[in-house]
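Title: Comparing notes on inverse folding

I've been comparing how different people in this forum approach sequence design from structure. To keep things fair, I'm posting one structure and asking everyone to reply with a full sequence. Here's the target:
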């Protein structure tokens, strides 16, 4: 059976409405999301909240992006992502359930279609699918990655 993936131009920022991280207080799963009373955006205020210990923290900065660590972290508080695991000698990670679903769809596909030719070359290399590392794209790693995605999904709140 042929599984097909078609690149729809999703960017990494399209998965940032909710990020699961490790709570710095209790090491359980916490969430990072735009504050409820603000319009969502990369530079809008964000809130870290943990349902396990009740810890909260707000971010109102002017810069987003990876922290100083080489490990996968969120863009705001630079905390370790909750959804990460060693796989094929690398770290497989995701921000949330939608990101995991995207990875699963991409990895299980035996036929992968890029963006239509009408899309400019500038945008073509900015999509999430085009930015995936080679080890995720390799067919020889498919089954190991899919098994690890199942494990990561089981840890979701």
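Reply #1:
Here's my take.
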């Amino acid at each position: 059976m042929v599984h097909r993936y078609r690149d729809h131009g999703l960017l990494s920022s399209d998965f940032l409405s909710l990020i699961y991280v490790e709570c710095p207080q209790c090491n359980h799963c916490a969430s990072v999301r735009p504050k409820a009373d603000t319009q969502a955006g990369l530079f809008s205020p964000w809130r870290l909240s943990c349902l396990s210990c009740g810890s909260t923290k707000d971010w109102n900065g002017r810069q987003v992006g990876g922290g100083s660590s080489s490990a996968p972290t969120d863009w705001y508080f630079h905390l370790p992502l909750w959804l990460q695991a060693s796989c094929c000698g690398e770290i497989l990670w995701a921000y949330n359930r939608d990101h995991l679903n995207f990875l699963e769809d991409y990895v299980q596909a035996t036929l992968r279609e890029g963006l239509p030719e009408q899309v400019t070359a500038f945008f073509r290399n900015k999509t999430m699918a085009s930015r995936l590392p080679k080890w995720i794209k390799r067919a020889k790693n498919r089954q190991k990655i899919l098994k690890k995605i199942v494990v990561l999904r089981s840890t979701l709140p």
